[in-house]
Amino acid sequence: MRPQFEWKVRSRSLKLGERTLIMGIVNVTPDSFSDGGQFFDPDRAVEHGLALIAEGADILDIGGESTRPGKKDLVSAEEEKRRVLPVLDDIRKQVRDAIISIDTYKAETAEAALDRGADIINDVSGLTWDNRMASLLASSDCGCVLMHTRGRPEEWLSLPALAPDEVVPLVIGGLQEIAQRAAKAGISRERVVLDPGFGFGKRMQENFPLLGRFAELHQLGFPLLSGTSRKSFVAQKPANANDGSSRLAGSIAAMTASILAGGHIVRVHDVKEAMAAAKVADAVLHAARCQGIFPKAR
Q: CATH classification of 5-290 is 3.20.20.20, yes or no?
């Protein structure tokens, strides 16, 4: 049900598939849809990141630019570096063995973060928004999370709707192209994790076929990351569409569904709650495998 992999992340090798890994989110932004800029101050961002580690986060994902739907004002690489690098430095100083990911599609930011000891680059554009990113990652030994996105944030609200049966083939085809792009650039396969990009160019109901057929993504042959946390499609009511903190129950439900379909890593805001739910989902997978309901992982 959940294939096993060894994810090469700089000098480390992370086992994927034995249990779900939790990636905790640290948004160093003034305009994130999910936390309203609570951690824009570097000291607060560091404090939050350390708290997520204490709660059990396996990886911290630090980002300096919001990619909310409709966003038009781009953040420069200089500003993005000003936001994320001090947070990276301080967390690394306090927790030397922390596994730190930088959420950026800009090669300039990624390069500076890697020079400061970042372990993973999480590129939401799947190597498509910056022509230098693929060659930069190929020259590094970092882990790479490569996401499928349909268009750019300023386009998402006006994209034509997708039929339920169109979503999964579109994402699988897009992820295949991303994997091929990475291989052509020289990024070794064992360093790559793929992310179907919930909410990234998929509007509301279009995310449910992707979640319901998540297991089909295993045909790609890569470990999978699922990022459903506080996305608008998990909101209990339309009135909560802009209130990230009200989406905990829906976030946990969607996250659990992706784990039971074989997701290896989940990217979450609420680490403590996600840890508890993931342990139950992992136990279900283990029990089902032991009873022969699901095939053993490769």
A: yes
Q: Which amino acid is at 289?
A: R
Q: Which long-range contacts (CB under 8 A, 24 or more apart) does 102-105 make?
A: 102/61, 102/62, 102/63, 103/61, 103/62, 103/63, 103/64, 104/63, 104/64, 104/65, 104/80, 105/129, 105/130, 105/133
Structure-token pair, residue 160: 């034509």
**Which of 231, 289, 296, 298 is an active site residue?**
231
Q: Identify the active-site residue in 106, 267, 289, 298.
A: 267
pTM above 0.70, yes or no: yes
Query: Is 267 an annotated catalytic residue?
Result: yes
Is position 82 annotated as part of the catalytic site?
A: no
Cα-based angle 134, 128, 74 (whole degrees, multiple of 5): 115
Average pLDDT over residues 32-57: 83
**Of 53, 21, 15, 2, the residue nearest 227 (C-alpha):** 21
Tokens 């699901």 found at: 294
Q: What is each CA distance from 230 to 109, 137, 186, 217, 240, in whole angstroms?
A: 25, 29, 34, 22, 10
| Token pair for 236 | 């209990």
Beta bridge partners of 192: 144
102, 110 contact by CB (below 8 A): yes
pLDDT bin (cut points 50, 70, 90) of residue 297 is very low
Instruction: Indicate the helix (H) or strand (E) that contains 123.
Output: strand 120-123
| Cα distance between the two ends of the chain | 9
- The string of pLDDT tens digits covering residues 130-184 is 999 999 999 999 999 999 999 888 888 888 999 999 999 999 999 999 999 999 9
H-only helix segments in 237-270: 248-260
- Other CB atoms within a 10 A radius of the CB of residue 42 amount to 17
